[in-house]
């Protein structure tokens, strides 16, 4: 049986990627070949399985889905009722977008773990790491309105509670966002983590440096934050192509 060289296999990988195949697709194909070549080696048909010497292409990280700034405004400004659910939902979503916290971090905030006068909240983050997050003026105003209504139903120390007065769950927050997105005609659907993605992307769009965004998100590694530069570049490219007089694509 003719034996493939590592050079030929690398050429195969490069050709597939040049054809537009994703790294994930090429990796799956190579995994099948690896199993076949391992079988040939066990059967004595080949002396050595060279595919085991190669590293599979690293899969591309998916670009996070997020809302444009005007879409965030549409979503939040739509929640303008004065009933308990509306006041809570507006404060909840304003808080997530203003601070960039994870859903699990947001629902874990207790009364006494934030200061509206100073504009911050104390968070127990991923891996038990503590950090402070900032709250913008709109989130603070929404929280002030909600706190008056919360006092009439709350039976625990949680900041965000349900109609029974107990702490909101992660799942409840997802349902709330899904419902509120459906209420706004034409608004794109995102998962609740998309508000965190929107927070990071809009900071970068506004000129924030990557290291500061990393700290605000509570990322241990800068590489986790770098994925947001892709969405920021996409937006800038779109603006450039639409606005520059000599930017038309051939």
**CATH fold-level assignment of the largest domain:** hpI Integrase, Chain A
Instruction: Kindly provide the radius of gyration, computed on alpha-carbon positions and rounded to a whole number of angstroms.
Output: 24 Å
Structural class: mainly alpha
| Helix and strand run | HHHHHEEEHHHHHH
Helix content: 40-55%
According to CATH, what is the class of the largest domain? Answer: Mainly Alpha
> Number of DSSP helices?
11
Shape: elongated
Neighbour order of strands in the largest sheet: 1-2-3
Q: How many strands, what sense, and barrel or not for the largest sheet?
A: 3 strands, antiparallel
Q: Can you give the mean pLDDT?
A: 85
The unreliable regions are: none
| CATH H-level superfamily title of the largest domain | Intergrase catalytic core
- The amount of beta strand, in percent, is under 5%
Task: Report how far apart the termini are.
Answer: 48 Å
Q: Keywords for this structure?
A:
single chain, 250 residues, mainly alpha, hpI Integrase, Chain A, 2 domains, 3-stranded antiparallel β-sheet, 53% helix, Integrase_recombinase_N, chromosome partition, cell division, DNA binding, Tyrosine recombinase XerC
Your description of this structure?
It is found in: Cytoplasm. One of its GO terms (biological process) is chromosome segregation. Residues 62-241 form the Tyr recombinase domain. Residues 1-41 form the Core-binding (CB) domain. The protein has 250 residues and is mostly helical. It has eleven helices and three strands. The chain has helices spanning 6-18, 23-42, 69-78, 84-99, 103-107, 137-150, 170-182, 193-205, 210-217, 222-226, 228-243; strands spanning 114-115, 120-124, 130-134. Strands 1-2-3 form a three-stranded antiparallel sheet, with no helix packed on it. Helix 4 (84-99) crosses helix 8 (193-205) and helix 8 crosses helix 11. The longest helix has 20 residues, at 23-42. The model has no long low-confidence stretch (mean pLDDT 85).
């Amino acid at each position: 049986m003719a034996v493939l060289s590592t050079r030929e296999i690398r050429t195969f990988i490069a050709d597939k990627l040049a054809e537009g195949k994703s790294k994930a697709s090429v990796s799956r194909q190579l995994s099948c070949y690896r199993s076949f070549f391992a079988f040939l080696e066990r059967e004595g048909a080949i002396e050595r399985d060279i595919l085991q010497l190669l590293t599979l292409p690293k899969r591309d990280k998916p670009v996070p889905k997020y809302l444009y700034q005007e879409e965030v405004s549409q979503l939040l400004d739509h929640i303008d009722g004065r009933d308990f659910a509306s006041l809570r939902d507006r404060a909840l979503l304003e808080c997530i977008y203003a601070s960039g916290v994870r859903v699990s971090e947001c629902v874990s905030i207790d009364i006494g773990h934030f200061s509206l006068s100073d504009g911050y909240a104390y968070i127990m983050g991923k891996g038990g790491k503590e950090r402070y997050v900032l709250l913008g003026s709109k989130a603070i105003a929404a929280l002030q309105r909600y706190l008056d209504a919360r006092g009439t139903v709350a039976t625990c120390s949680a900041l965000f509670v349900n109609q029974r007065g107990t702490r909101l769950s992660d799942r409840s927050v997802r349902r709330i966002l899904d419902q509120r997105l459906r209420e706004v005609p034409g608004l794109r659907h995102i998962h609740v983590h998309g508000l965190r993605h929107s927070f990071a992307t809009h900071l970068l769009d506004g000129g924030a440096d990557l290291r500061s965004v990393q700290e605000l998100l509570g990322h241990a590694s800068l590489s986790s934050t770098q994925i947001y530069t892709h969405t920021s570049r996409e937006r800038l490219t779109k603006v450039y192509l639409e606005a520059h007089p000599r930017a038309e694509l051939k």
